[in-house]
C-alpha cells in the first residue's frame, strides 16, 4: 500500500498518539490525518486538530465538546465534532479513512479496534489490552474482513520484522514455518534490582520513572510490575498464533534489542534500535516501505554492552500470573486485564499499595475461574465479563 493514506489516530493526546502525529507530519506527500480522538485534555486535542487539519475529532461527552470548542481559536473553521463511544467505533470504520492507529489505553479501546478490523482497515495496533481481552474475536475479524494488521508494540513490531520475508500483515492461524520460539525482551523496569521487601512504599512517580522509555502512566506501572510483559506474551500468542510454551521472556536492561525470533536451524534474528516508538510507528505507517521517523541512529559502540537474563518470577509475580491466565483461557485473560486496570488506577490515585497489585489480580482471576463456565462468543459477552470483573475488583474496596 504505497498510495496516499488518511489516518484516524485514536488516543491522539497520549504518548503513542503524539509520536504518531510527529511521524505523519514528516510525510505530507503520503500521509494525512483524517480524525483524532481523545478522552481528556481537550485543549491539547484542539491544538493537534489545528496543526494536522483533522476533518473530524471524537470526544467522550458534551462537556468535552464544549471544552474543545472553548479551546478552538476564533475565526478558524472547526472540525466536525463527534461525541461518544459509538462515534468512536463509527469513526474507526469510516469510509473516509484508510488507516487506524489504535492507541487508546485499556479495554476501552477494544470496540473501536474491532470496528476497524470489521471495516477491513489497515490497523496499527498499539492497544494491547484489546488483544488480551478478545484476541480470538479480533483476529477472526481481521481475517474475515481482509484487514491489514501491523503490530506497533515495539516487541511485536520487532518480531514481525524478523519473521520470514513475505509474512502477511494479517492474522495467521498457525506459527510461521521454521520458527521455533519467540524471544520477547523486557527492560525489567525501575525495580529490577530492588529487594521485593522494599517495594511496599513505592510511589506512583517512582513506579512511572522508567529507565529507558517515556510512556503513559498506566503502561509505565505495568512495566514496573512486568504485567506489561505478561500482556505482551498474550498479545504475541494471538498475533503470531504461537503457543505459550514457545514464547520466552528475557530481561534486557538496555532496551536496544526489541525482540527476537528463533528458527529451527538455530538462527536467531533480532531487531535493534533506539527505544523510541516512532520507529515501529513509522514501520506501520510506511509498510512495506521504510519511512524516516525522526529517530536518531543507533550508536552501538556507545551502548557498549547488551545484557540478557531470565526474569525471576518471585520478584515479578505479575508475569507468572499472565502466563497462567493464557493457559487457563479467555475468561482468565479478561479477568487479569480488567483487575489490573482497576488496581493500577487505584495505585496511581494513592488508594492501593504497589505490592497489592498482583494480589488483586490473582484474586480476580481465581474468582472468575470459580464461576460457572461463561460463553465469550461476541463483543457483548467480553464487555459483560469485563464489567463484572471491574465490579468484583471494586468491591475489594478499590474503585
Ligand atoms: P496514554 O495514557 O499516554 O494515552 C492514552 C490515550 O487514550 C489518550 O489520548 C486518552 O485520552 C485516551 N483514552 C484514555 N481512556 C480512554 C477511554 N476510556 N476512551 C477513549 N479514549 C481514552 O497511553 P499510551 O502510553 O500512549 O498507550 C496507549 C496504548 O498503547 C496502551 O494500550 C499501551 O499499552 C500501548 N503501548 C504504549 C507504548 C508507549 O510507549 N507509550 C508502547 C507500546 C504499547
Ligand atoms: Mg512493549
Overview of the structural elements:
Its cofactor is Mg(2+); Mn(2+). This is 1-deoxy-D-xylulose 5-phosphate reductoisomerase. The chain is α/β, with parallel strands linked by helices and 399 residues long. It has two domains: 147 residues, Rossmann fold, CATH 3.40.50.720; 173 residues, Rna Polymerase Sigma Factor, Chain: A (Orthogonal Bundle), CATH 1.10.1740.10. It is 45% helix and 15% strand. It contains 16 helices and eleven strands. The chain has a seven-stranded parallel sheet with strand order 4-3-2-1-5-6-7, with helices on both faces. Strand 5, helix 5 and strand 6 form a beta-alpha-beta unit. Helix 4 packs parallel to helix 5. The radius of gyration is 20 Å and the shape is globular. The N and C termini lie far apart (45 Å). The relative contact order is 0.11. The structure holds nicotinamide-adenine-dinucleotide and magnesium ion (MG). Nicotinamide-adenine-dinucleotide binds next to helix 1, helix 6 and helix 9.
Amino acid at each position: 500500500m504505497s498510495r496516499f493514506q488518511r489516518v484516524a489516530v485514536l488516543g491522539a493526546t497520549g504518548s503513542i498518539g503524539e509520536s504518531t502525529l510527529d511521524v505523519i507530519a514528516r510525510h505530507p506527500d503520503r500521509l494525512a490525518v483524517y480524525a483524532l480522538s481523545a478522552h481528556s485534555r481537550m485543549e491539547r486535542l484542539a491544538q493537534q486538530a489545528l496543526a494536522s487539519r483533522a476533518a473530524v475529532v471524537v470526544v467522550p461527552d458534551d462537556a468535552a465538546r464544549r471544552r474543545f470548542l472553548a479551546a478552538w481559536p476564533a475565526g478558524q473553521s472547526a472540525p466536525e465534532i463527534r461525541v461518544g463511544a459509538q462515534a468512536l467505533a463509527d469513526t474507526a470504520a469510516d469510509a473516509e479513512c484508510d488507516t487506524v492507529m489504535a492507541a487508546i489505553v485499556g479495554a476501552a479501546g477494544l470496540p473501536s479496534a474491532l470496528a476497524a478490523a470489521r471495516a477491513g482497515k489497515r490497523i496499527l495496533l498499539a492497544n494491547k489490552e484489546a488483544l488480551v481481552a478478545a484476541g480470538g474475536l479480533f483476529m477472526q475479524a481481521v481475517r474475515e474482513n481482509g484487514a491489514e494488521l501491523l503490530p506497533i508494540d515495539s516487541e511485536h513490531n520487532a518480531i514481525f520484522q524478523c519473521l520470514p520475508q513475505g509474512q502477511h500483515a494479517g492474522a495467521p492461524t498457525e506459527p510461521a514455518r521454521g520458527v521455533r520460539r519467540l524471544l520477547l525482551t523486557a527492560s525489567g523496569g525501575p525495580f529490577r534490582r530492588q529487594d521485593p521487601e522494599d517495594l511496599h512504599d513505592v510511589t506512583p512517580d517512582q513506579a512511572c520513572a522508567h529507565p529507558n522509555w517515556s510512556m503513559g502512566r498506566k503502561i509505565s506501572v505495568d512495566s514496573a510490575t512486568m504485567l506489561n510483559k505478561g500482556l505482551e506474551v498474550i498479545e504475541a500468542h494471538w498475533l503470531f498464533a504461537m503457543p505459550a510454551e514457545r514464547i520466552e521472556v528475557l530481561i534486557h536492561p538496555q532496551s536496544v534489542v526489541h525482540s527476537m525470533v528463533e528458527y529451527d536451524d538455530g538462527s536467531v534474528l533480532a531487531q535493534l534500535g533506539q527505544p523510541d516508538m516512532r520507529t515501529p510507528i513509522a514501520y506501520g505507517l510506511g509498510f512495506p516501505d521504510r519511512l524516516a521517523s525522526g529517530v536518531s541512529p543507533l550508536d552501538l559502540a556507545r551502548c557498549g554492552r547488551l545484557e540478557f537474563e531470565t526474569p525471576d518470577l518471585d520478584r515479578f509475580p505479575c508475569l507468572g500470573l499472565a502466563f497462567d491466565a493464557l493457559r487457563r483461557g479467555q475468561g482468565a485473560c479478561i479477568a487479569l486485564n480488567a483487575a489490573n486496570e482497576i488496581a493500577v488506577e487505584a495505585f496511581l490515585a494513592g488508594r492501593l499499595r504497589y505490592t497489592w497489585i498482583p494480589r488483586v489480580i490473582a484474586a480476580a482471576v481465581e474468582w472468575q475461574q470459580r464461576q460457572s463456565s461463561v460463553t465469550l462468543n461476541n463483543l457483548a459477552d467480553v464487555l459483560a465479563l469485563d464489567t463484572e470483573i471491574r465490579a468484583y475488583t471494586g468491591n475489594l474496596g478499590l474503585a
